Amino acid sequence: MKILICNERFLFRFGADRVLIIIGKGLKDLGHTVSIMANKYDKNVVESFASQIIETPTLIDNYLNLNEYTVEWLEQNWNKHYNENNKPDIVLIGGWPFFSAINFFKKLGIKTIFMDCGAVPIEGFSGGAKDVQKKLRRLRKEFLPEVSFIIGISEFVVNSQSRIDVENKVPTKTILLAADHMEMTVWDSSSLKLSNSPRYETNLLKPLQVEGKKIILNLGRWEPNCYKNSEASFEVMRQIMKSFPNCVLLILANSSDVEIPDDLKKSILPIGFPDDKELQKIMEEADLGISFSLWEGFNLPIAEMQNLGRSVLAFNIGAHPEVIVHPWYLCKNNNEMADKACDILSGRELDTSTKRESFENFRSHFKWERVIREYNVILEELISQNDKHLKEKISLIIDVTNAAKDPANSGVIRVTRRISREFQNFLDPIFVIWNPQENCYAFPTKKEFQTLGQFNGPLLSNKNTLSPEDHRIALDDYLAHLNDNSTRWLLFTETIDESYGRVVRRYARDHSINLAAIFYDAIPLLSPEFCKDQAIKNNHASYMTGLAECDIVIPISNFSSSCLDTFWKDHNIKGSHLSPNLLPGEFGGFARTQKIQESMSNKVNILCVSTLEPRKNHKKLIDACLKMQEKHPELNWTLTLVGNRYAGAFDIADYVQNISEQNSRIKWLGVVDDATLHQLYDEATFTVYPSIIEGFGMPILESIWHGKPCICYQKGVMSELAAEGGCLTTDVLNESELCDDIYRLATDKELLLKLSNEAITREIKTWDDYTLNFISILQSHNPIIKVARSQNQNTALCNNQNWEDIIYPDCLCKNWQMNHSERLALTAILSRLKPLCSIEVGNSKGGSLSLISQYSKMVFSLDIDPSIPGTLNYFKNVNFLIAPSSVTLPVLLQELDAENIPVEFILINVDHSAESIKRDIDCLLSYIPKKPLFVALHDSFNPECRRGMIEANWDKSPYVHWVDIDFVPGRLIEDGGTTSHGKMWGGLALAYFKPQIRSCKLAINQTAKEMYERTLQHVA
Description:
There is one protein chain. The protein has 1020 residues and is an alpha/beta fold. It has five domains: 177 residues, Glycogen Phosphorylase B (Rossmann fold, 3-Layer(aba) Sandwich); 172 residues, Rossmann fold, CATH 3.40.50.2000; 153 residues, Rossmann fold (3-Layer(aba) Sandwich), CATH 3.40.50; 161 residues, Glycogen Phosphorylase B (Rossmann fold, 3-Layer(aba) Sandwich), CATH 3.40.50.2000; 211 residues, 3-Layer(aba) Sandwich (Rossmann fold), CATH 3.40.50.150. The chain has 39 helices and 37 strands. The strands form seven sheets. A seven-stranded parallel sheet has the order 5-3-1-6-7-8-9, sandwiched between helices. Helix 26 links the parallel strand 26 and strand 27. It starts with a strand and ends with a helix.
């Protein structure tokens, strides 16, 4: 790919310039051709990665119009540098003065990406500098809507500027920058030839340390009277010096450019502009780093110093919360900053364990390898934008119920985490967990998302999709505020427990969300002896049956696809569409091993990566190794096992642990992070994957990814994976044969070399390939939202399943005192309304209550029969109030109103006198709804009901409109012979109360149970 990077400068001392240089160098290392276009640049640095350097002229006397001058120059000189055959495929723009050039590139048919570092605050600027900043803001709004893609350097920049400037009309993504560039030594002073900067005195630190001074480093450029807020250092230093008079603040500036107060001249020392090596030495030796900035789109110096494990303080502003290693290091004001600085200098900060963990997490994520990879993915996507997977926008919701709670990283959870992260490169997926208390999806908490994000899991890109610790935010509430026309998909990446799977699928249908599921294997059915967990074994057939209700199922291998298809056919189930998408072999975002690593040691390191469950066959592997030890005592070998315990098979873990304690050659490490596992693969001579049956067998390909041969089973999907090379297949059930083949590979150097060559040369699917194919599968499928379908409609009808169970699933249909037309009308109302709170007055044998409870979050049932709560206590979201409605209804409405909980639906079952009906209606007419309120009366044709409605002057109310849904005067309604004449009169009157308050901030801080208890107290 040919990439042109445009920016005003490529100078090492400016943060945005550094970022573009590092990105350019990284893209070049990936094999792309990179050129730059700029007014100023450090030539020696840029020449290290740019194949072409185009210097655009500057306007010394008219800088304000440099943007327009640049595009004019481009129009006149473009053909001198490029033609149609060698023009760039894509342009990466850093900002000024290339805003107007965006349309120029667009006319040439060249895709553009804008790296958004944000527009800095204007306060403190004056004259020409202020004019330029104001113009820059205008240019952003004018030209950014024309770019192909925007990459913000932080969520703060993306949310506060990027999306606002383009009105959400341009694809936008956050890619947090990294911090490990100091280790790259890109900016060595010996090659920079910095004539305008004084040489930094490399021996400055030692005298200060000899004098016992505490050294504080001011991070970032020295720029007073603007957002950099450099002058705040004076006040903070004075406060620090009260406790530590012998401390100094080093600032990155020339002494001639800084006016330091007399009382601080010995304490604030300008040190010029050190190169990377020198600055890294200062950061390593300094006791503390401080950033006084009041606005930062990222703040690279903070990241640089934290990467070295040094403490840094910053204000709780801008992107600092995204970059700082721990919230403790964020400060509200100068006073708190001075106090925390003294704490750090005194050795009082975070406890050692928390601090170590915070810095380790920071360093593991803030790597340029990640940034370059994420940029590369977007670049390649834009080039292939004509591919069908980008033609249709997809809105993806991923069920991560288990992965957000499981701290381990077993196979299915590993796939969930990794694919969730990969989808973020192309879409903006929403991650949800099932909330069984409310029968709905909700957002994970911050702690749950942190668990999900482990082991290369997804990054938090939108804090609005987190639930606070004290309550759950429902997905419904979030989707209600989205205004898009995308196709919504709910993706099951995990094996669903059918105890809630059926409810989840109905939830998706009710919300017009299509269903997709990844299918792993049928092992609990094919080989139940290997499944020790009885719950998993009992669930699996129901789970595979339930998959038939999805719009599409995506098995992880052809073998798994065949197993599911066979199961459906054997059980006379009309299955959904199957589209296999084989899992990738790419490991954890680490680069693939390109050459064979020759070991100088005679030691043979054997690695096995697998959860400790029966079918993984660990005992046979260990027994084979022990037999090898007995037969070949001269062989120097080790066996390292990586994998978590398995519920229901702890005996295997106990066995492995006992063996590892007895034999120093065998080590069990349990769960390790991806960086550790990557290192273990690198150090391995080869791997063994002794599993007997799999849906896929990812560790086989991960071993190949690292260029390490793998010994695996000669049957099933393992043999399919081995067929393309790099593997030695054997009978893993035969201890002697497995022993011989392990010894053979350990001692036959020619065989090891042959298989290693096959490993590094065979094609392996990447996570990008897998994810793009996955998106393509979803987009090529044209699902029809299923309105009502049981496990399988055709099969159900063939088996004479009651048709009422199909239309009203999970409802009590027996003795339901409504006509079918009334039931359908009620179902239609509720399915569209989906009330937060509903009330049923009188009980109709539980039929209507069972329907209302499915569509409402909370329900109150009012009746005088004390036996009803015991009879219908399985409705978990229903609260029963046993007293006359004339008492309970007004009190309940009052209590709900006090808690700002809007009542949206009320059903009054007419089985009492006109007077009681009039009282209920009068109560409702006096109630002022906060949201539109729908009230249904059944049976509205009953003479008592009609008289009560007329006496209440319902039709005269200015707040209410009502209509008979199911009653046509003079017409009989068919109802299958429920009377001696085969006919029955019926009616359902619907009232619509207009809300008198147009908006209401919901503050639901009381549970339905608490409402119920308080209402009971009032009634008593």
